[in-house]
Amino acid sequence: MEDFTPVSGLIGGLLIGLAVTLMLLLNGRIAGISGIVGGLLNTKGGDSGWRVAFVAGLLLGALAYVVAAGARAPVEVLASPPAILVGGLLVGFGTSLGSGCTSGHGLCGLARFSRRSIAATAVFFGVAMLTVFLTRHVF
Predict the structure, then answer these.
(1) What is the pLDDT of residues 101-135, one digit of tens each?
(2) Which of 7, 58, 70, 137 is the most buried (most CB within 10 A)?
(3) Cα 76 from Cα 90, distance rounded (Å)
(4) ∠ at Cα 23 (35, 107), nearest 5°?
């Protein structure tokens, strides 16, 4: 593994854990990204402020990393724009079908020992592994 970074991975994991814990304790909400972003499209009176702040924090956090590192973000997207669009739509459909995403189920649901989240996360990762296998070795 040439990109093994245990210290930054540990720090990032601790920060994510702290963020989802604070979101639940201080706001009483699960930090599921698809639910937060989806709620921006279907807001209930006064509900959009914290959602906009959360999404802005995600984007500004990535920007802060790029500025602090003094380089481009270390992510290279190899897919075509149509493939990214189709993938995004499929992810949106899947999160709607699964009543949440990997952040909501995988981070928050597993920490609460939710059986539904355990099943959903197992399906998410199983499908992800199958997709990688199919796209790299079959198609």
Answers:
(1) 888 888 888 888 899 999 989 988 998 899 899 98
(2) 58
(3) 21
(4) 65
